[in-house]
Every structure is written in structure tokens, then in C-alpha cells.
Design a protein that fits this description.
By secondary structure, the chain is α/β, with parallel strands linked by helices. It has helices spanning 30-43, 62-76, 91-104, 121-134, 145-148, 154-160, 176-185, 198-203, 214-229, 233-249, 255-265, 282-294; strands at residues 14-17, 47-50, 81-85, 108-112, 139-143, 166-171, 189-192, 208-211.
């Protein structure tokens, strides 16, 4: 049974975009994934996103993606929303992934903007609509033009929000003005997809986060959210400011790289990276330790 959701919070409020643990020889570590998922939910996440960018989805196979969904669902599926990435730049492939995810029992789908082929807005609309039409699962859009090359325009977001199964947007566009307009004009549940903008996006109507920093700071993110929702904006601001070194440090390079390094330092499942990603250097690791310590994260 899936965790309780509402139209306002279809996937919960605090979600971590989970790394995919690998064994020392680079194979999928399903036991490690289950242990990490339990740790993250125990820390306060009410949702997890697997098979996203932070999960190294570009370098995991379709079979591995399905295995990961099933393993995480087995570990925490009655305690947290398990959302799986199905976005590719091939609509037919995304539909195949979506249907496989539905059969595996996923609670929802994350669909990123098609990358590299740079479709026009009508192409984006038809792509996301086709994915949403292919299963009975709710869909979270993922707008990240810095990776995909194409933003989802406000007008397109509003159109997509009229689909009964397109219920949310993960916003990593970095444009608070356009986010404010899209939130005001649509019924999409808005999730921050950029940790540095978690609090600013809450202030204009976002309802939660899909976080990378959640790997190391979920209790603080939940406290920030609850303070803001409860009307204590000063407390929320204080937590946000305390976390600034963590937000900075976790994104000095690609977030998967720093996250796996931080988890390894904490003795949690992570393992190596798959090329073309590479581990931090000794100097970068020392800087990460300094950044995390400055934000109160214990290693």
C-alpha cells in the first residue's frame, strides 16, 4: 500500500533523490540500496526518488532500474512514496520504462525534459502527455534546462497540469519569477529541485523538496519546511542560512560525486561511481569535509 497522499502533496513533502549504491566492482548493490533507503526514511524523508540523475540513471540499464525500484519498494514502500525516473530523450523508451515501473509497483514517475535533441514546446507537451497516458501512475515533471538544454515554458507547464495524472513539477530552472507565475496559474504541486532555492521556492508556493542534500541533512530540511509551514519564517531562514555551506559544498562538482563521498565518510552504502563520473580528489574531499562541518553535518 502506498503512503497517504493528497492533491496538495502527491508525493509527500521531503524527498531525497537517492544515489544508486554499487559494489566495489561496480555492480548494482541492492542490499546497500535497501539499507540506504531505510536510513533516509528513518531520517525523515516521506518520499524517495530512485533512478534519477543522482541515481546515475544515464549509466544504469533498464533491468537494473527495475531491480532497484523493486528493492526500494520492498524496504520502505509502505512508509514512503517511491518515485522512479523514467525520463529519456526517446518517448517510446520512456513509455517502456513507465510501464515497467508500474508493473514493479512504483508509486509515481519522474519525467525529465528530453535532453540533447532540444524539442520545441509542442514536442515537450506531446512527450509528457504520452508518458502520462501510458500508465495509471501520477507523474512529476522535471524542469532542468541546465542539463536538458530546453526549459518547459510556463504556458506548457500550465497545459500539462490539466492532465489528470500530471500532478507535480520538480523545479530546477533557477527562475523564481517564472516559477511564481506557473504556480499561480496551475494546480501542479511544486517541488524545489535546487537545494539552494528550497526556502525561496517555499515562499512563492512550493510544497516541498526533491533534494540531494537530503542524504546528509534530512532532519534540518524537514525542520526548515515545518517552520515555514507553521509560520515561523525567522526560524526557517536561520536553518536555511546554517545550511548554506552544505548547499555550496555538495555542488562544488557533480552532486552524485560529492554525495557518494559524503555517504562513504559516514559509513553508509554508496560505493564507486560509473564512468564518466569520477571520485573526488584528496583535496576535494578535504574541502567537502570543511563545507559539511561548517553546516553542522557530522561525519
Amino acid at each position: 500500500m502506498a503512503p497517504i497522499s493528497t492533491p496538495q502533496t502527491p508525493f509527500g513533502r521531503v524527498l531525497t533523490a537517492m544515489v544508486t549504491p554499487f559494489t566495489a566492482d561496480g555492480a548494482l548493490d541492492l542490499d546497500g540500496a535497501q539499507r540506504l533507503a531505510v536510513h533516509l526514511v528513518d531520517a525523515g524523508n516521506d518520499g524517495l526518488v530512485v533512478n534519477g540523475t543522482t541515481g546515475e540513471s544515464p549509466t544504469t540499464s533498464d533491468a537494473e532500474k527495475e531491480q532497484l525500484v523493486r528493492a526500494v519498494l520492498e524496504a520502505v514502500g509502505d512508509r514512503a512514496h517511491v518515485v522512479t525516473g523514467v525520463g529519456t530523450n526517446d518517448t517510446r523508451h520512456s513509455i517502456e520504462l513507465a510501464r515497467t515501473a508500474e508493473r514493479a509497483g512504483a508509486h509515481g514517475l519522474l519525467a525529465v525534459t528530453p535532453y540533447y535533441n532540444k524539442p520545441p514546446q509542442e514536442g515537450l507537451f506531446r512527450h509528457f502527455t504520452a508518458i502520462a497516458d501510458s500508465t495509471g501512475l501520477p507523474v512529476m515533471l522535471y524542469d532542468i534546462p541546465g542539463r536538458s538544454g530546453v526549459p518547459i515554458d510556463t504556458e506548457t507547464l500550465v497545459r500539462l497540469g490539466e492532465h489528470p495524472r500530471i500532478v507535480a513539477n520538480k523545479d530546477a530552472k533557477g527562475d523564481l519569477g517564472r516559477a511564481a507565475w506557473a504556480i499561480a496559474q496551475s494546480d501542479l504541486a511544486w517541488y524545489s529541485g535546487d537545494d539552494m532555492l528550497n526556502l525561496p521556492l517555499l515562499s512563492i508556493g512550493a510544497i516541498g523538496f526533491v533534494s540531494v542534500v537530503g542524504h546528509v541533512a534530512t532532519p534540518e530540511l524537514r525542520a526548515l519546511l515545518e517552520a515555514h509551514v507553521g509560520g515561523d519564517v525567522q526560524k526557517a531562514t536561520e536553518i536555511h542560512q546554517k545550511l548554506l555551506p552544505v548547499f555550496t559544498g555538495m555542488f562544488r562538482t557533480q552532486g552524485v560525486i560529492t554525495t557518494k563521498a559524503a555517504l562513504t565518510l559516514q559509513g553508509l552504502p554508496a560505493g564507486p561511481l560509473r564512468l564518466p563520473l569520477v571520485e573526488l580528489t584528496a583535496q576535494e574531499t578535504a574541502q567537502l569535509k570543511t563545507d559539511l562541518a561548517a553546516g553542522g553535518v557530522e561525519l
